[in-house]
Amino acid sequence: MKKPLTLLAVALLCVSCAPAATTAPVPAESASTRHTSSAPVSLSANSGPEAPGGTAPATLGISWDQASKDKAVNVAEKAMADFARPAVEEKRWANDLAKWLTPQATADYSAVDPANIPANRVTGPATLSVDDANGFGVMAAVPTNAGTYTVQLLRTGKDAPWKVNRLTPPSS
What we know:
The structure is a single chain. By secondary structure, the protein is of the alpha+beta class. 29% of the residues lie in helices and 17% in strands. A four-stranded antiparallel beta sheet has the order 3-4-5-6. It has a two-stranded antiparallel ribbon with strand order 1-2. The termini are far apart.
């Protein structure tokens, strides 16, 4: 009787040490988790999928106009002016800057010590580098006494406010 128990123990040990299967069965989708397309997929000339109804518009529904450019320049300059204040107390600096920032940028800049920022004033108007195919974002060059910063601005829609996602210091 002792021998069969020993063999059983060895067999169980071997089974427990064996690698598990690398594939798991895919659970059947229920009606509540099944995904359906809101529009049929069309095929391009090369049989590849294409946007419903043809191709996506160049600006995805947001076109550039002078008002959009003016608003982007205004936000870039004001955000840079609030950023370039190394002598301001940290909490006040962060609170003043936060109104211009995307949620991600707010998190990213929350640990910045303003005393480490080399610029302390904006020295000229911002200039935009507009990509006509992208109405959701723009890069602005903002001159400061420490060089020209690049400010990335984003918006979620034509009437949505511009928000700063990144302030990049001069390369030198």
